[in-house]
Each structure stands twice: as C-alpha cells, then as structure tokens.
Task: structure prediction
Amino acid sequence: MLFLDRGPSPEEPRSREVRRPTVPRGSALRRRLRLLPVLPSVLLLALFLLAPVAWSFYASFTDVALSGKAAREPSWIGLDNYGRMINEEGFPLALWLTVVFVGASAIIGQNLLGLALALLMQRGNRALSRVVGTAVVAAWVLPEIVAAFAAYAYFSRDGTLNQILGTAGLEGADWLYSYPMAAVVLANIWRGTAFSMLVYRAALAEVPADIMEAALMDGAGGLQRLFFITLPMIRNSIASNLMLITLQTLAVFTLIWVMTAGGPAGASSTLPVLAYQEAFKFGDIGYGTAIASVLILVGMVFGIVYVRLLREAKR
Amino acid sequence: MTSQEKTSRRRPRSGRFRMGTALLAAAGLLALSACSPGTPQGTEAKTLKVVYQKTDSFTALDDVLKAAKTEFEAANSGVTVQLEPIQANDDDYGTKLALSHRSAETAPDVFYEDTFKVRSDVDAGYLLKLDEHLAAWPDWANFTDAAKAAGRADDGGIYAVPLGTDTRAIWYNKTVLQKAGIAVPWQPRTWEDILTAARKMKAADPAVVPFNMYAGKATGEGTVMQSFYELLYGTGSTLYDEQEKKWVVGSKGFTDSLQFLKTLYDEKLAVTPAEALDPNVWKRVFGEWLPKGKMGATVEGSYTPSFWQKGGAYEWPGYAKDMGVAMFPTQNGQEPGGVSMSGGWTLAVGAKTKSPDLAFKFLATALNRKNALAFDTANSQIAVRSDVAADPGYQSANPFVKDVSALVDVTHFRPATADYPRISSAVQEATEAVITGKQSPAEAAAAYGAAVKKIVGEDKVIRK
Result:
C-alpha cells in the first residue's frame, strides 16, 4: 500500500482501443433476456448468501436468544445491541485485536513475506526455490482445521517449539497462554503466506524484461529497480492480493478457536470468535449477530478502499 | 467448425430455447429442494428421535438408552427409536440441542436436559408439560420430593424427570496427604485448614499439586459448581436471594471467595493458571494427577468414581483404597459446617413432538427401576428413586456412596432462572481475571456486580 503512489506510472501498452463488434440494436426486451442465463445463479446466491446475511442484520436489532422467553418471541430492541458494544469491555478489545491480527498477520506478515519470497525465488536457484515453494504451499494445502491443530501442537506447552528450545538448553514459555496474539499471528502468517507468494510470482513473471534492461542501462540499482519499476508495475496485483488476504484474515475463526479459543481472558478473541461466543456460548444470538454485522461492515470498508486503489492503479 | 457457424447463425432461437430449459431446470431444482421432507408423513409418527450427550468418558447414558430402546421397541411394535448421541462437552451439547429445537424438522422427541436449563428452556417453549402423563405413571410416586421439584418450571408444571442427582466434595489422595504428615481420614473445618494442609503438602513434595480448585471460563460450569460456589455458599453469602428474587452483588463473601482462589493460585497450591484455562484440565485431574499421586486433593462431584471404576474412562483399581472423600468446609467453620452443590440431568419430551404419548412412554421406560439403577451405578449418581436408593446393588456400587449421599443435607442448588447461564459466565470471568492477575479480587467483584446489573437490570440486584 505504501508504494502504490510512488513514481510515475510507466506507459503500458493499451489494447483498450480495440473495437468490440457492435451489438445489433435489439429491443430492450432482448437485452434483458440476455441476463436470463445468470438468473439461476443470482437466485441461488440470494437464497443461500444474501438471505442469511439479511437475516443476521435483522436479528441484530432484536433480542433473539437460544433459550428463555426471547427464543420464543424475540422483540425489537432497536440499536440496543450496538449500544452495548460501546459500553461492554469485550467489544472494543476484540475490535482492536482484529485490527492487530489483520494488520500484523495479513498486511505486514503474509503480504511482505510473500513478496520477499517471490522476489528471492525469481533470482534464486531453481531447485532451491522449488523446495521452498513446496514447503510454503504445504501449509496452504492443509485444511484449516488440520493447520490449526498443527499450529497448536507447535506452540503448546509441551509442543514442538519448546522441545526444540529444550534441546538447545533454553526453556520456552507457555506461548498460547503468555503470548496468545503473537502465536495466532505467526500461525496465520505460516498458513497464509503461500497465497501472496503465488500471486506475486505470477505478477513478477509479467514484468517485461526489456524495461528492466533499459533501467539497468541507465544505471538503476537493485532497490531503485524494485521501487520505481517492479512495484509500480505490479501494483494491480498488490491491491488485489491485499484485498483478498485482508478479507480472508478478517474471517479467520477455526485457527484461533483451536489454538486459544479466544483466551486467556479474551486476550486473543477477535470479532469472529467474540461473535461466536456471544451467540452460541451465552445464547445471545441478537448480540452475536450485531457483532457479525459490524464485522461485515469492516470487511466492506476494507473492500471499498482496495477497489478504489485498484481503480486508481488502472487509470 | 461448420456446426459452430450454424449454431451461431441460429443463435437467437436456440439461445432462447436453452435459456428456457436452464430456467425450467433451475426452477425445478428450487421447487424440489423446497418441498422434499426427508421421510413420508406416515412413518414419521412412528419414529422417536432421542437426543443425548455421549463422550469418551461418559457412555453410561448411551448404554442405558440402548437398553431402553430394545425394551421399548419390543413392547411397541412398529415404533423405531432413533438414538442420536451428540459428542460434545456440556456447553456445546446445550448449544446444539437449543439450535435443534428451533425447527420442528430437527427438534427431538425425547432429550437429555440439564436441570439448571429446564426453566429457561420452558420459557423458550422447548419442553412439553408432563403433568397429565406423570399423574398416570405409577412409578412417579417413587421419586423423592427434591427430584420432583427439579423439573418444575415457574408456572408450577413439571416438564422434566431427573435421572439422578449429585453432590460435590473434596476428593483427596491419602498417600499424598500421609507423605506430608497429615492424618487420614482428613476433614478440614475451615478454609484455613485447607491452606495449612496444602502448604504442608507443597513443602513435603514441591512437585505435587496440593489442592486444586477450578477457575476460569474454560471449565465452564465446572468452575462454579466444583469450586466457586463451594466457597461462596460457605461464607454466608449467596448468589441469588430466593425470597427477594434478586441477584446478590457486592458481598464480602464474593470477594473473600475470589481471594481464596487467588491465594491457592498465587502460592502455586493449585494447578498453574495456564493449565486451569485448558478446557481439558479435568481429564488430567482424573486420568493423570490423582491416580499417579501428583495431586493432593481436588473439589469434584459425587460422580468421580465413575471415571475410575471398571469400565470407566480412566480405570484405576486402587482408587477405593487410595482415595478419601471429605466435606468442603465453611469459611470459618460456621454452621452447618459444610457446603455442597447439586445439579443433575433429566429426560424431557420435546414440545414439538408429533407423538407425545409415545415419547413419554419411552421416557418412562428409560427411567424405570431397572434402567435408573443401571444409570445411577454406572455413572455414580445419587439415586432419586427411593426404590433404587434402597437397592443393595446401588449402595455397594462404590465405597463412597454413603459419604456423598450424606452431603444432600448441606447442599445448594443453582438458581435455575433464564438469566443464570450469563450470570454463571460472569462469575467464571471474575475467577479468570483473578487467577491470571488481571484484576484484584475487589476489582473482579466490582466488575461482576456491574456485569450482573447489565444482565438483569438495576431493579433485580440487591447489595448485601
């Protein structure tokens, strides 16, 4: 994100001017008929995706609960659930932890590490880069629950990390208890870096070699080439990648739930974990859905920011 | 090539045709998924869905219900009992059960229900009133009065029938105590006696956990039932004023109880806070620390022997000889000299059942003398049927039946109001804040008071 507005955008060969075959001017009806084939998928999306989201949004204005009177006849309580968020200690902390989690593990961790790996692999020896690539992708291939258990086994008190430290004569901490946020952030970096790496590898392959050569001739150093040529040329991929990993990381639940269950004392409970606990552990579905609605809004804000960046990058 | 050109020339018509087909297919699919009930109506009425909890350390109910199924199906031909065990801990089981109640399609006919959830689930309309059925059931007379009250809701009707009840006590490892020079049988009279003994054990062997009491949210109801309430109800304070129907906040007893937990954890007399916040800590208490002599004592339920007896999750033949049981003392030894907590689980009939008569018949089969006896002995429950309690097989099920049954005299029940689960969670949070050092006992007690006010409202709170 930092480097998106750096340097002049190099002239890209444009192919936009290629004329599309002109559409025969049919009636408006005919143009509308063209939308028919997508109708089933739109309907299915509305039914299975939009409807639950809309219901969750609606429920966040009621006191619907798992048990008690409110389970039978939930009543409309307006913005009470949202008001509670401000007053209750758990929510601001969870919001902050979510920002930390997304910032540290996705925007900084996965993104920069993925870019670094891709750059190194581009010039590194082929056999080595293949080995590294496989190792990194392995974490991505694992189903989330398996990756979560692996991370738990690594960080837990008698886990791999402490055993390695033990053989070196060091005594490790109880990571999941003493440094829960650091543990889940590292675990998410480990799990998600492969995606950024793959995106950036593909993007770097598209940077034309002749521009690089020209820059070399002009005497541009390695860092200069990176900041003034490579990064501006792949800014499109950077923005798309940031958008995807941010939204993915915002929604991470299984990893945290398995590793720390949001504890100790809420020290690693991000918004999805908090929403689950409120809705299903305390049976307060209304409050849980309100937290989930905020999560959706946060995701939308990020989404809009990145889409804007993308549009600017295209200009 | 040529065929492609052809289609492209004929595109409008065939396109429209294809669109039509696709639409029809999609509409058909939607219609199909919308109106296909799993089974035809006729047989549905003859299938009873029974939902209950089963874990790797709790199979007693599964065994009993399987026996009841065989018995019931033999007596009612044409009826199938569909047993649906849910493998989960108490919290998750409760959530799954409540979710299944929200639709008639998934709601069970007969299910296993915690006594403290009965009232709130009756409010939610999940349970069927059983008064008429119970009046016609001769066995009902054998249930003790306390047992009859366990399934009673605010409207006075009875909605659930208990399988058994339990009490809580101190379970101690005699060898660990003797090594520290403490005479057995051991019966502490005050909280101070507990600390003194625990410090002695720590001094004798720093590797043992002298006296464990649960704390934190991870152990859920275990934290309050097997730890905090034993403390609180022994200070003269209480959680809920039954007469005023108000929740007690700001009591000295509450702060003192938190302080006691803090002392245990700060002096490393209990497990480490990290271990306490592991939801599976109780498995290590039963399966590892107590049998291996690495723990002096813990507060646990009367069902404790069920883990160690033959067929239990952590078989330990020596438990009868090595373990002892003591009453949890009051703070300063005040009357009645001891504290215990009781809960227990029931069977109930779903309000959305299509065949209430059959459902109740199955409930009655599962709770008849034979099955109740089998459950109470296998799960080390305290019997709630007088005929089971008098059975020699029950009385000799384990060496501690008499001791833990006697605790019924000093026992307390949780306030089973609809708000209770959230209050309980606030208590658990207070204990977690104290043992992790996040808050002092006074701060945690104040935070608890504020949380309770938020949950039930200012007018339902009383300062004592």
